[in-house]
Amino acid sequence: MTTASPSRLVFTGKQQVSLESFTLPALAPTQVRLRIERTLMSTGTENIVFNRHFDPGTHWDRWVKYPFHPGYTAVGTVEVVGPEVATLQPGDRVACRTGHASAAHVEAAECFPIPAALGWDEAVWFSLAKIAFHGASVARYTLGDSVLIIGAGPIGQMSTRWARAAGCASIIVADAVPDRMALAIAGGASATITGPITEARDAVLAAGGGQLPRVVIDSTGNAAVFSAALGLAADRGTVVVLGDTGQPGSQTLTPDVIMRGLTIVGAHDGHNTAAWNNQTITALFYTLAATGRFPLGGLNTHRFTPAKCEEAYAVANRDRARTMGIVFDWSAR
Q1: What is 276-302 written as a DSSP string?
Q2: Is the pTM of this model over 0.90?
Q3: Is 258 exposed, middle or buried (0-12, 13-18, 19+ CB in 10 A)?
Q4: Which 3 state secondary structure label does DSSP give 134?
Q5: At what angle do helices 154-165 and 43-50 cross, to 10 degrees?
Q6: Local structure of residue 26 (DSSP, 8 states)
Q7: Closest by alpha carbon to 234, among 165, 139, 137, 166?
Q8: Are residues 166 and 200 in the same domain?
Q9: Do 12 and 110 have their domain in common?
Q10: Each residue of 259-308: pLDDT tens digit?
Q11: How far apart are the C-alpha atoms of 238 and 292, rounded to whole Å?
């Protein structure tokens, strides 16, 4: 059992991150104590927060207050269970939606068992997969469907794999970074397009056999991409806004919406239902990943100890195009 004081990452101001010690509260009867093994940086969300790259008055502005403790994806080992916990026992491997920290007290009902076939480095992708699931859900894929996924970063990669799992026949992935395309192909992309999305129409048509895709998913969180996405969906098609921008006022409509009868739908981590929520989506993701139907190999490109957190966020900002999964390894303690 862990005896040293736990530690966690904290943002103390704009572009300021450090590692701090903290004290866990008393363990509630329905909680478990976890020894965290890995956490995964959500490079989109966390860098918007880290850089305060959001407009005043947005939900980001209301959310980000200092000290701010980043992160929402962790995997670890159960060390202690509360007296009312019957579903878990010490030694169980679980995932949970908690921040970058070495230990946590978490409700047992909010812990998700990890299959033995998955290692920590694969299992830690569960929360980003869950976010992308909501995009796939509102896309309402049918067998043989067609989709263009704009952005091949972490959320785009997860979106590609959900489209494959849903039986889409045409999965086109577009990104300005060529190094991301091998991972997209490994995840199920039938075609890739490298370059500015504003210049991609001819390539999208060629990849789709002369047809625009029924669904376009904007996974980028880049407000400027939205207008281009509208022009790349088929008539009566659907554009899914999956990447959450800090500057929504810069997302502008085009005549495509009314003239071609487009549907625009937003997808967000918080759009849970009784049927599809943290527990059920994570269980599905782990089932598919453990049986090879949701490939995760090669997605982690950078690994840091928590003490190197300043370097980790510097890399995430300086070399964003060359990063994919940025993992904090809490096991070296």
Answers
A1: SSHHHHHHHHHHHHHTTSS--TT-EEE
A2: yes
A3: exposed
A4: helix
A5: 150
A6: P
A7: 139
A8: yes
A9: yes
A10: 999 999 999 999 999 999 999 999 999 999 999 999 999 999 999 999 99
A11: 29
How would DSSP label each residue in 114-130?
PPTTS-HHHHTTHHHHH
* Same-domain pairing of 167 and 206: yes
3 state SS of 22: coil
> CA nearest 73: which of 40, 31, 108?
40
Angle at 159 between CA 69 and CA 109, to 5 degrees: 50
- Cβ atoms of 75 and 123 within 8 Å: the answer is yes
Q: How many Å apart are CA 19 and CA 10, to the nearest integer? A: 6
Residues 189-244: tens digit of each pLDDT = 999 999 999 999 999 999 999 999 999 999 998 999 999 999 999 999 999 999 88
Pairwise CA distance, residues 88 & 324, whole Å: 32
Q: To which H or E segment does residue 138 belong? A: helix 126-139
Number of domains in the chain: 2
* Range 187-195, long-range pairs (CB < 8 A, 24+ positions): 187/157, 187/160, 187/161, 187/295, 188/160, 188/161, 188/163, 188/164, 188/295, 189/149, 189/160, 192/152
- Peptide bond before residue 67 is cis, with ω within 30 degrees of 0: yes
* Cβ–Cβ under 8 Å, residues 25 and 15: no
Q: Would you state the pLDDT for residue 3?
A: 58
55 contacts: CB under 8 Å, gap ≥ 6:
61, 246, 247, 248, 249
Closest of 124, 128, 100 to residue 11, by C-alpha: 100
Q: Which residue range forms the structural domain that includes residue 15?
A: 7-125+296-329
Cβ contact 216:171 at 8 Å: no
Residue 313 falls inside a structural domain:
yes
Cα 52 to Cα 49: distance, rounded to the nearest angstrom: 5
